[in-house]
Write a structure and sequence with these properties.
With about 325 residues, the protein is α+β, with helices and mostly antiparallel strands. It has three domains: about 130 residues; about 70 residues, no CATH class; about 70 residues. Helix content is about 20%, strand content about 35%. The chain is built from six helices and 18 strands. The chain has a six-stranded antiparallel sheet, with no helix packed on it. The protein has a six-stranded antiparallel sheet with strand order 6-7-2-11-16-15.
């Protein structure tokens, strides 16, 4: 018999849910156009009578929009697309957006067009329409070497079939389940109270703590040494000094983390303290859940469980299969 563990509940007042690598929420632009001076990019729509056929055969991204094409590669990318259309005899072309499409708008478009996802600077994002009037339970099925799967439920109907929905690529070993509107208020780095923690750990942690006068911390922080509730600028400057010490040739071996009191810090504090490695916080009136994959980074297939009428009843992430 399959045993499920409840990780928490998500609320989605907008009716549009986002699932992605939670560590990459620093990239999320919300209702604003993405603005990355270090990595300028352009978005395109594929238009013309054969737009859908051209998008499918070109097979670069999902659907008829192509996001985050690096500015330095636009000319070559456009030429490649035009050549492809000539070879395939598709009547289609690329139309450049005047500015990059805000990530919130990408969610709206994907849901309306029934596209299973899009990318944010190469990071897969899976949006889906969900009930807005109830809490959505998130569960995991434990296995011998981590979770076998995670599942967010939209209905208690019986599963009649499962369809392939997409794939999540994860580099930070964590998933986030979040309301699309609420993410426009997400603060990944900016401290909400002007404070930050600076913690350190590793082989030579005691030596470094002694050198910098770092106090021993309680178990609730998850590490032994560091400072909590410092003014953010003070914590940042101490972090720079500690980083300089770590980078000296032949220096002590240790790791450290600068943790401003942002939404990300709030939820990760709960995750670190949880036996299930999951936590829920409220942002802009919505409950957002962050959960560790339990197996590190990787690519994870995502399936849509449906009822006898083909209506979605759950989204399921396959994590680790037991032999």
């Amino acid at each position: 018999m399959t045993v499920e563990v409840v990780l928490g509940e998500v609320t989605c007042p907008s009716g549009q849910l986002v699932v992605m690598d939670g560590g990459y929420l620093e990239l999320w632009s919300g209702d604003q156009a993405p603005d990355n001076e270090e990595r300028p990019a352009t978005d395109f729509a594929i238009v013309g009578p054969d737009a859908e056929a051209a998008a499918e055969s070109f097979d670069r991204q999902t659907g008829t929009r192509l996001y985050d094409i690096p500015a330095h590669a636009v000319a070559e990318f456009t030429a490649t697309f035009d050549k492809h259309c000539r070879e395939q005899e598709h009547d289609a072309r690329l139309r450049e957006f005047e500015q990059q499409v805000p990530h919130r708008e990408r969610v709206r478009h994907a849901v309306a067009a029934r596209e299973p996802g899009f990318i944010v600077m190469g990071v897969p994002v899976l949006p889906i329409e969900v009930p807005a009037d109830r809490a959505l339970r998130v569960t995991a099925v434990p296995g011998a070497y981590g979770s076998q799967s995670m599942r967010i439920e939209f209905s208690d109907a019986a599963v009649a079939d499962s369809w392939v929905f997409g794939e999540l690529g994860v580099d930070h070993a964590r998933f986030v389940f979040a309301d699309a509107d609420a993410l426009s208020s997400w603060e990944h780095f900016r401290p909400l109270d002007g404070l930050a923690d600076l913690v350190l750990w590793g082989r030579d942690q005691e030596q470094v703590a002694d050198e910098f006068g770092a106090p021993r911390l309680g178990d609730s922080v998850g590490v032994e040494y560091g400072w909590v509730d410092l003014p953010v600028e003070e914590a940042y400057q101490r972090g720079l000094a500690i980083e300089t010490r770590r980078n000296k040739p032949g220096g002590p071996k240790f790791a450290f983390d600068f943790r401003p009191h942002s939404h990300y810090w709030q939820v990760m504090r709960l995750v670190r303290a949880s036996d299930q490695e999951a936590g829920v916080i409220q942002v802009a009136g919505a409950d957002i859940l962050m959960a560790m994959t339990s197996v590190g980074d990787g690519f994870f297939p995502v399936h849509l469980d449906v009822d006898v009428d083909g209506l979605p009843i759950a989204l399921r992430i396959d994590i680790a299969r037991e032999d």
